[in-house]
Each structure stands twice: as C-alpha cells, then as structure tokens.
Amino acid sequence: MKRSGFGPRKSSLKRSPFALATAKTQMKRTAIRARVKKPTVAEGSKYLAACRGEPCYLNVKCPWTDWEDPTVVDCHSNQEKHGKAGGLKAKHWFTVPGCDKCHEWLDRSGAPWEEKCAAFDDALARWEPRRARKMGIEHNELEEA
C-alpha cells in the first residue's frame, strides 16, 4: 500500500446539503441553549440583605433577644419542599436570620430531623411578616410566592 504525504486530505465525497450542521450553526444553537434565565445575584441578595441587623429567629441555642446580634447570618432551609436538593441550597425566599450557634445546630448537629424542621418553620412563620414590611412587599405578592 502506498503511503501518502502530510498534505491536506482530498475527499472524494462532496458535502450534501443534508449533512450535519456547520460549525457556525452549531455555535448559534449552543448560544440559544445557554440563554436560560438564571436568578441574578441582585434578585437573591435582597432577601439575604434583609437578614442583616436582625435578632436571631431560630432561638434554639440562644435566648430570645430583640437586639441586633453581630453573628446573625441568613440561614437557608434544609427541607426539600423549599428547593433544597443535593448540592443546591434552598431558594433565598426560605431564609431566616440566625446566630452562629443556632445556625450550627440547624446544619450540623445530631438533633432529630423533625425538631429541626419544626424550629425552622416556626422561625420562618415569625420572620416572613417582618421581612415583608422591611422589604415593602404587599400581601398579594406573598401569596403568589
């Protein structure tokens, strides 16, 4: 068999109009696929910012206080009904302000699951009206979410 050189290959087949899409068309399709709306940082950060300067609402490892605690951060729900799954956090709507001790209890303690869910749901019920007033959300907007 005869060896060929390293030059360009000569194809005896011509490209039919029904062949696979060109690279340019494939790039367009990829760009269209990539345009899926994702929540922006600004959309989620307004819920997270609402937790700043608030007392702890979980109140599992700390006494109930009305004063601003510097260790308070936004605690996301760990429940599947709130959007938590695998490596995903729950939606930002389902956050409550919690101090570092209560946040640690919620995420890493060996407490029973039902107890954690009950504590979070109670905190969320108390926090939602306060957050709505703080963010200026109307009552009908709360029902839609």
Lay out the secondary structure.
Blueprint: H1 23-33, H2 41-50, E1 73-76, E2 95-98, H3 100-108, H4 113-135, H5 139-144
Antiparallel strand pairs: 1-2
Helix content: 40-55%
Q: From the alpha-carbon coordinates, what is the Rg to the nearest angstrom?
A: 27 Å
Outline the biggest β-sheet. 2 strands, antiparallel
Largest beta sheet: what is the strand line-up?
Answer: 1-2
Q: What is the 3D shape?
A: elongated
Strand content is 5-15%
Number of domains: 1
- Helix segment tally: 5
Helix/strand order: HHEEHHH
- Structural class of the secondary structure composition? mainly alpha
Structure notes:
The chain has five helices and two strands. The chain has one domain. Strands 1-2 form a two-stranded antiparallel ribbon. The protein is mainly alpha-helical.
Question: How is this structure best summarized?
Answer:
By secondary structure, this protein is mainly α. It contains 5 helices and 2 strands; from the N terminus they run H-H-E-E-H-H-H.
Question: What are the main properties of this structure?
Answer:
single chain, 145 residues, mainly alpha, two-stranded antiparallel ribbon, 2 strands
